[in-house]
């Protein structure tokens, strides 16, 4: 029999590959003759690693700037996909929330300039396509920092969040850069650029912004969106995901880029469907499964894809809510890995987590086998 494990990382605890291996190590080889460990991500943390594990490529080490302007080094991936030479850049590597302690002050200082430097480096390599994953960013600058690194000019030279400095900007020559290279923004959210579900209102507080800063960012973002619509005929309100990563999605639309959903994009790149066609059982999961999981997260995407081939799916998670929406109808069940009450510190302990995953997967596989 064939089993496939395709679990998203438990953030701050264990990687996708580690979780998959824990599942597979708990299943007896004499029953499961074919085991597949498929690292996965939905456009956030771990996306490059997932793609590299599937199709390989070359890591490129670059110097850049973190959200607060400090020097930082990081890798991006150059690989081949559909006979095209492409770059995969994770925004969070260079401007990730994990690189600072979020406060209102950091929101007012943080800029996506460092990401722009990396995109510029990839552009200079004359690639066919550039993919930028937008999950996990620390910035809420409307994408202006990235555009600044690509040639946008401003009437001031003040450091900090460019959205809060001035919206009197000139985007040329940045708008001409992608004439020969396609740009894709991989987003795991569909939030608009402005409004009650826009990047300022929804993600600003998560990144440390107080109410006054949120209101100021929203006001400036509306001004900027109106300017873009009037001068360039691009209505950011029409693009789902324009508010991803503090407005980076919208900035990439302005550059002529396309916003694409995270899970389908990654699944296609790694050839996930090929692994499902003759599988007998699939394990998936993520740190928390709730009613929001069906909004493009890995477990939902896996379950929908598995449904195409009538393969049963079991989801594992750190925690779950009673109501998990449509997920309940798509899989055998979603199960917490914890064997009893645990503290937050214990829940994030990698060794304990992987041991629990192995134990729970072993028990669930036995139930599955006895019911078939």
From TrEMBL:
Presence of keyword Transmembrane: no
InterPro entries: Glyc_kinase_flavodox-like_fold, Glycerate_kinase, Glycerate_kinase_RE-like, Glycerate_kinase_sf
BP GO annotations: organic acid phosphorylation
Keyword Transit peptide listed: no
Gene3D superfamilies: Glycerate kinase, domain 1, Glycerate kinase, domain 2
GO MF terms, alphabetically ordered: glycerate kinase activity
A Pfam family recorded for this sequence: Gly_kinase
Keywords for the protein's UniProt record, in alphabetical order: Kinase, Transferase
Family: Belongs to the glycerate kinase type-1 family.
Name this polypeptide is given: Glycerate kinase
Protein source organism: Tetragenococcus koreensis
């Amino acid at each position: 029999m064939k089993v496939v494990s395709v679990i998203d990382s438990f953030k701050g605890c264990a990687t996708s590959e580690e979780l998959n291996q824990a599942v597979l190590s708990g299943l007896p080889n004499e029953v499961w003759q074919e085991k597949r460990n498929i690292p996965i991500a939905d456009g956030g943390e771990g996306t490059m690693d997932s793609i590299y594990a599937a199709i390989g490529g070359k890591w490129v080490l670059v110097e850049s700037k973190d959200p607060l302007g400090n020097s930082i080094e990081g890798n991006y991936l150059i690989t081949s996909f559909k006979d095209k030479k492409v770059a995969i850049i994770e925004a969070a590597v260079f401007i990730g929330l994990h690189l600072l302690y979020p406060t209102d002050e950091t929101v007012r200082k943080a800029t996506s300039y460092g990401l722009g430097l990396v995109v510029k480096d990839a552009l200079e390599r004359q690639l066919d396509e550039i993919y930028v994953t937008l999950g996990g960013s620390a910035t809420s600058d409307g994408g202006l920092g990235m555009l600044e690194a690509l040639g946008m000019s401003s009437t001031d030279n003040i450091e900090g969040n460019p959205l809060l400095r001035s919206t009197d900007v000139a985007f040329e020559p940045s708008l001409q850069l992608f004439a020969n290279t396609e740009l894709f923004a991989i987003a795991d959210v569909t939030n608009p650029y402005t409004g009650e579900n826009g990047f300022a209102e929804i993600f600003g507080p998560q990144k440390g912004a107080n109410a006054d800063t949120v209101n100021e960012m929203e006001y400036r973002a509306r001004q900027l969106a109106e300017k873009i619509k009037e001068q360039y005929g691009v209505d950011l309100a029409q693009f789902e995901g324009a508010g991803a990563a503090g407005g980076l999605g919208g900035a990439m639309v302005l550059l002529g880029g396309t916003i694409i959903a995270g899970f389908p994009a990654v699944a296609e790149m790694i050839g996930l469907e090929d692994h499902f066609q003759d599988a007998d059982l699939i394990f998936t999961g993520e740190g928390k499964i709730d009613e929001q999981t069906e909004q493009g997260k890995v477990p939902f995407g896996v379950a929908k894809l598995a449904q195409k081939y009538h393969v049963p799916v079991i989801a594992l998670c750190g925690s779950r809510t009673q109501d998990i929406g449509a997920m309940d109808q798509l899989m055998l069940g979603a199960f917490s890995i914890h064997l009893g009450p645990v503290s937050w510190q214990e829940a994030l302990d990698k060794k304990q987590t992987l041991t629990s995953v192995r134990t729970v997967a072993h028990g669930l596989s036995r139930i599955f086998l006895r019911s078939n």
